[in-house]
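Let's do one together. I've listed all components of the complex below, 594 residues spread over two lines.
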Amino acid sequence: MNMAVIGIGLIGGSMVKDLRKTNYIGKVFGVDLNPVHSKEALRSGLVDEIVALDVALAKADLIIISIPVDSAKHVVLDILENIDKTQIVTDVGSTKGGICEVVKNHKMRGRFVAGHPIAGTENSGPEAAIEGLFQNKTGIICNKNESDSDALIVVENVYKLLGMNLNYMDADEHDKHIAYVSHLSHISSFALALTVLNIEESEKNIFDMAGSGFSSTVRLAKSSPDMWKPIFQHNSAYLERALDEYIDQLHDFKTFLKHNKQEDIHMLMTKANDIRRILDGKVKEENKNTIEHEKAT
Amino acid sequence: MNMAVIGIGLIGGSMVKDLRKTNYIGKVFGVDLNPVHSKEALRSGLVDEIVALDVALAKADLIIISIPVDSAKHVVLDILENIDKTQIVTDVGSTKGGICEVVKNHKMRGRFVAGHPIAGTENSGPEAAIEGLFQNKTGIICNKNESDSDALIVVENVYKLLGMNLNYMDADEHDKHIAYVSHLSHISSFALALTVLNIEESEKNIFDMAGSGFSSTVRLAKSSPDMWKPIFQHNSAYLERALDEYIDQLHDFKTFLKHNKQEDIHMLMTKANDIRRILDGKVKEENKNTIEHEKAT
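Okay, and this is what the predicted structure of the assembly comes out as:
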């Protein structure tokens, strides 16, 4: 099957890299408004041809929208207006409520599968595309009952070929949970970079004293503002709630520090340590059951 | 030269691993109050013998204190009381003001070299010791003029053998800068873990939705509370200042989100992106000069 990638960057490009190794896809058509990215995508063989959107829609069986979430909301409608019932459209955006809302009542809604492959790096553009990015990561499909079953199967197959574990959620639930688990950590990282840049006069000190700890905590602060601005905007309600909670936690640390409450600080850190168990996959059974149930419904 | 390691954990153990590969050290004596750590350090060959402190002091030429900074402040005095003018003591603590203060007027002050090899992982104990931990990292020596020159040379050689780049600072300056660049990022990470643990009901969601982004931002939240409690206590004044600035930055994000100030959020992220340049080592020249000057004085 022929594929069109609308926006050939880190995510779209990395998908192509791994899918090229399978027999699942044929020709890859790239659509990108950025001439530098277009040229690079052609040069590196990520795409076979750079074409205009209408040409891509005339030639591709599977269309992947991998552009910032605000633009995706407009482009998805253009695409649904111009495809037929055999073609399949999916997106990779980090917020799902907005795009699911705009397509909700479209006559071609069934051809669209709302996806979120949870993977990435702090880099962007076609040069950032890497092999194996999605291996063992989670691929979330939202509002799956609104998609035609043949379209759903194709996107599920693509996710499986990329090595992802499939998960299904309601779009609004997705946005809430991803605000807490992913979007907040981007803000915490951007704010950490700004703090250190403001407070530490010497750039050389930052470079010298940044052990691997600071580097990993601040890594996401290198992420693309063009990509993250609309994500934060789409998800501002849940993100504000997460930020409130985060600021509360920081205030607790500050208060305990100020009043030399050593045991309270120790207790906070011991509680925080529990994240290791969860990230190691040792989640509590009752939680597992809740999710299995959600999946089944 | 024979070596004693007081506290055989991540840092002391990793030092031994790499120094064993050189001809620079002979026998390694371990002192550790934790019987499980002692046994593991012997079993894995990190140390040749587990001994009491007085035995270690009788046999070792170089004594490395690698225990939490509050205990180190006491142990260093015990050690200085019981060594002779040929022996050398150094520490690896992440705060330097406290330990430099307690030894300041000691008649054996010259035998002590206040060190901070800026390296680590989120793990602790002798099993966490790894090879190459210090390669290309910064090793800071504080208040070097208070150390005897022969003692200083030995510790400098050890740092160089471990692959570190040497840097020199005043102890109080060290504590200020390390609060901003390292200690704050530990608090930001602990608080992030607590936020997600509090706000996200489903542990399975955390596991599934934690892309590599969240994992790297929250990694330091797995760190040892026993090690970090006294560091935060020693450095609370600078850390409070850093936390204030950090909370201010987060409030800016929150306010801009609330009032849909998209361009302001974009501007904050673009400023934060500058951390990439600095971590890549492309520091501005005027800053470089400032530091070279500090080094020379």
